[in-house]
Specification:
alpha/beta, 32% helix, Rossmann fold, binds uracil, binds 1-O-pyrophosphono-5-O-phosphono-alpha-D-ribofuranose
């Protein structure tokens, strides 16, 4: 399947960590650790083309010009599972702001329900990275992108670990302007709208609530 907004990150270290995240024998502690590691590796690729601006400095020897990110970065983890990715990313972008967005999928309708939202005041001026390990039906991601755009966000990227074709299609229809990065594009959704082969319920695997 060919999706124009989708980038699959094939880096060997990303793929190896995904292998262990998928494995049902990986316990909560290792799952959390590896999710943070893979998220850092992914964001390294995701930020490859982020705009820079020149800035003057003085080395111990003379004046020089260097580069810094043109804009501040805002991470928007979709709670709960998105939080499992944020520490790994913050290790690489420690000055990033974090805008939390609480969404859960209603068990019957599978539609996202909002329960918390706190974005930085100046989110509109920042580079925004929305993170959630799972892109299943795409309902949660699409809702999150609606909230971020309504807050004035324009430079937005969505990053997940595992995507389904249905989820990518939904995002491309609802938010055709948003680049999507994933470590894997999986086969399909099951009757409960879980990704196959997937990795199970990401929130439960991070927090040991299964
Ligand atoms: C999971 C996942 C996404 C959503 C994906 O969260 O982390 O947010 O489901 O499904 P969708 O693409 O069909 O919307 P969940 O609702 O289980 O909440 P949790 O993170 O609190 O476990
Ligand atoms: N949410 C998850 O955590 N996993 C899935 O496969 C689908 C939605």
């Amino acid at each position: 399947m060919d999706f124009k907004n989708l980038t699959i990150l094939h880096h060997p270290l990303i793929q190896q960590k995904l292998f262990y995240l998928r494995d049902k024998r990986t316990n909560n502690l290792n799952f959390r650790m590896m999710l943070n590691e893979i998220s850092g590796l992914m964001v390294y690729e995701v930020t490859r083309n982020m705009p820079l601006r020149e800035r003057e400095l003085e080395t111990p020897l003379e004046k020089a010009v260097g580069y810094v990110l043109a804009k501040e970065v805002t991470l928007v983890p979709i709670l709960r599972a998105g939080l499992g990715m944020s520490d790994g990313i913050l290790r690489l972008i420690p000055h990033a702001r974090v805008g939390h967005l609480g969404l859960y999928r209603d068990k019957k309708t599978m539609m996202p329900v909002e329960y918390y939202r706190k974005f930085p005041e100046d989110i509109a001026e920042t580079e925004i990275i929305v993170i959630d390990p799972m892109l299943a039906t795409g309902g949660s991601a699409a809702a999150a992108l609606d909230f971020v755009k309504n807050a004035g966000g324009t430079a937005i990227t969505f990053v997940c670990l595992v995507a389904s074709p249905e989820g990518v299609l939904h995002l491309e229809k609802t938010h055709p302007d948003i680049p999507i990065f994933t470590a894997a594009l999986d086969r399909e959704l099951n009757e409960h709208k879980y990704i196959l082969p997937g990795l199970g319920d990401a929130g439960d695997r991070i927090y040991g609530t299964e």
